[in-house]
Design brief:
The structure is a homodimer.
Chain A lengths: L5 E3 L2 E3 L5 E2 L2 E2 L4 E2 L4 E2 L3 H18 L4 H30 L3 H24 L6 E3 L13 E7 L3 E4 L13 H9 L3 E4 L5 H17 L7 E4 L5 H8 L5 E5 L2 H13 L6 E4 L5 E4 L1 H20 L11 E5 L2 H14 L10 H15 L5 E5 L12 E6 H6 L11 E7 L2 H9 L4 E7 L9 H8 L2 E6 L38 E7 L20 E3 L2 E3 L4
Parallel strand pairs in A: 7-22, 9-10, 9-12, 10-11, 12-13, 14-15, 14-19, 15-18, 17-18, 19-20
Antiparallel strand pairs in A: 1-2, 3-6, 4-5, 7-8, 8-21, 16-17, 22-23
Amino acid sequence: MITGKNYIGNNLSSEGNITFKTFNPKTNTQNDFLFTEASDDEINQAVQLATEAFIQYKNTSGIKKSNFLNAIADEILNLDNDLLQIYKMESGLTIERAIGERERTIWQLRMFANLVKEGSWVDAVIDTSQPERKPISKPDIRKMLIPLGPIVVFGASNFPLAYSTAGGDTVSALASGCPVIVKSHPMHAGTGEMVASAIIKAAKKTEMPNGIFSNLNSSGIEVGVNLVKHPNIKAVGFTGSVIGGRALFDLANQRKEPIPVFAEMGSINPVILLPKVIRKSKNKIAKIYSESITLGSGQFCTNPGLILGIKSDDLTNFIQILANEIVKIEPSCMLHPNIIGNYEKNKAKIKSQKGVSVKAEYVNDVSKNFGQQVIMTVEGETFFKNTTLHQEVFGPFSLIVQCKNKEQLHEIVKNLEGQLTGSVWADNDEEIKYKSIIDTLQNRVGRIIFNGVSTGVEVCPSMQHGGPYPASTDSRFTAVGIHSIKRWVRPVSFQNWPQKLLPIELRNENILKINRLINNELTLNSI
Amino acid sequence: MITGKNYIGNNLSSEGNITFKTFNPKTNTQNDFLFTEASDDEINQAVQLATEAFIQYKNTSGIKKSNFLNAIADEILNLDNDLLQIYKMESGLTIERAIGERERTIWQLRMFANLVKEGSWVDAVIDTSQPERKPISKPDIRKMLIPLGPIVVFGASNFPLAYSTAGGDTVSALASGCPVIVKSHPMHAGTGEMVASAIIKAAKKTEMPNGIFSNLNSSGIEVGVNLVKHPNIKAVGFTGSVIGGRALFDLANQRKEPIPVFAEMGSINPVILLPKVIRKSKNKIAKIYSESITLGSGQFCTNPGLILGIKSDDLTNFIQILANEIVKIEPSCMLHPNIIGNYEKNKAKIKSQKGVSVKAEYVNDVSKNFGQQVIMTVEGETFFKNTTLHQEVFGPFSLIVQCKNKEQLHEIVKNLEGQLTGSVWADNDEEIKYKSIIDTLQNRVGRIIFNGVSTGVEVCPSMQHGGPYPASTDSRFTAVGIHSIKRWVRPVSFQNWPQKLLPIELRNENILKINRLINNELTLNSI
């Protein structure tokens, strides 16, 4: 079933010399399949095919794109248990998690299928002419969103399905009318190839142009770098580390024609616990966070890595309860020896900083590659001054900062780097007293949560997944939900354009019955 | 009336050591006023004030912002003839042009005042909770656009009013809730100071926080560079050359926290003349382009600098007619000796390229600083190979490319750099035969025009002013029209957020009666 080859458009190909295997962290052994990294020639072929496919695909109707996306969902489901097994073998995650993530992937595909079938997402705006206007007549102008061109998507290590081969970036780009070239994540190249085969099958079945999708294997950075530098590539989607995302961002901006990079990167997702709620609900909140911090071995971008409170006996008690709770939880397998290696390294780095104390650490023997959770504490002033403590530790880790007072808490929040999420816990109306701190927090995050945890990212129109740098490279766009399609498009105006040459979305007759802003009024009417 | 000082928030200040004067190109003499460049201290003060003002301003209601913007319009009108005179003295442009540009500026202010008063522009999206959902309950999530923070706007040389101190960038940023610091254009520092005084008056009158607006003088690049590098600045608006825009773009991307730069830069605005329309309407089209090329001495970003046709006797005749027409037009004064200096230099550069011939040039004596129009021609193949010929010549210039056939025309269009606009002229249904060329052109431009000229940029919702690089640094946004506000904002999600802490746009009761997407349905209803 798994060939180890690249999909260059519809063709399986393995011309390169570099080969690699994936790793099963649960058994701590290499998997059998041998993958061949894409060669420079194969990269160029994939981009060339995508460039040609774009000419046809950008003008493909919403209904046809919708059929294609639904067919991808069907074909992924057809992979059935084979997919779940390879997912498990390449990630150390459970079958339950595989099923859940597949469900999310399918849901995303169907959601975008519905979005493009309905059609209003193109934001059609029409201003009809006013020939009689003085001193000069007003022309007829019509505007809508059109796709940018071939897109490169980097598979994420922590979501082998939902943010990889047919994940949020790929699906939103395909929905917009852009061909996609996936640089498959080396940790789950087999999962990637299997999903790619589903996409290719769906593309053939629904008669999509060859080159609309390619899947390239890679073991290092070269394939990704060459893709991002290729002049025909028009945008990049990435989920991963700040170092990786920033490197791609810099590369893309140094091109003769710079292109947008949507990198969803690091975040420590600060949590503010206000005094009254801690007094009243310390047991409940401690239990919730012991679970949230260790969920999926802390390998979520929304993992709560920073808890901020104001020093008090209640906070001390809370920390102790959280410490007691968190060590009760059984550690689970992390994605890869490299991931756990980095986790241990970063944990040790924080531990070695002056003023940091470990409050709880799971120390019992665990299987190889299992992540042992830890919580540490530090005083507000120490945290404020030492930016090493502000860095993400990817894994089941959280740092609790004990601020000396409200003012110090505010100063710390003011100086936080950009974050994907921020959470606030408060008792009845307690939040009113902290309005300015909350307002400051809101200005540093993409999503702000009240009396709840940041883990669990709903796929819905109101979701903003992305925040001020370094949470993401462009806080104006989301990586999750229907509006993520906006990353791959740009508006074009048609002035005095003949009806029959106009895209159907902009013609007088509202053939698709979509929402359009006509002469400043949102309407379903024809002209 | 003109002090030569900087506005650091509400205060006039001139602590720096560098002074400069503006220039009257019509009289070819320096103007009297002496301007003091902003010092490093003044720059930091302006940014600090803007940072503090943002805390209050970002939560200011749409009605209050609307009052502020309308007050700016009123105060600009109150400047009356004084403003028109200084405009004329610093630009060489006519009083009629000054009045027209002031009208556009006022219109933009009123338009954004209406937009923020109405309020739907924040794109409110609400997904209510589903506590009963399995396996986990769905939280309540609500999303809207919030402002980024202090913005730097660079005044444009060619629009002392409409794209400078209170121009499109400033007004859209202020409307969004961002404080603005203008780096005034050195060529019209007096016009800038006068408009700044109107903004400050309006800010005081409507009780806006001090620091919401500053106006900094500069004679070189230092002030702009220091502003863009300041960590508290969150985005940049710029209109000018590719070299200038790219330099700011690079600077902004090299920051620890990169920020978006919206640079509207160079464009040669290609025009395709199809064979049948040339045969039939050569006189009319030649007349239209003789006027469009020389309009405002060619100092518009939408000036048609490239005309593409297929070789024929009709095209030869058209070129001759255009040549005859264009020399009949009286040259007019350009903005500044530097502008005309560059025009002459770039003209000479194109003229010196192999295969280029001058078809018409205004050679009669003209006053100092008047721009003498010229049209040149070149064969398709020569143009295709020599990218020097693809560069913008800012001024009353156009290059006509004679393609040997349809295929060569298509190849040329395919390889054009990104453009603000592209135009197509066709006779009855002739365009159908050239559909693929037109489709290619559409992919290279931000606005595409049928049987009309690109000069004249309507300020309306359907306008896209911005195109693929190097037309602008971010083709996904427009610099003109209501949607230009989208450059200065980002979405934020509020999860399970208490009603009284929510922005009023997101509360259950639709207090502002704005359009909101509630559970996937666009509605004016409350919840």
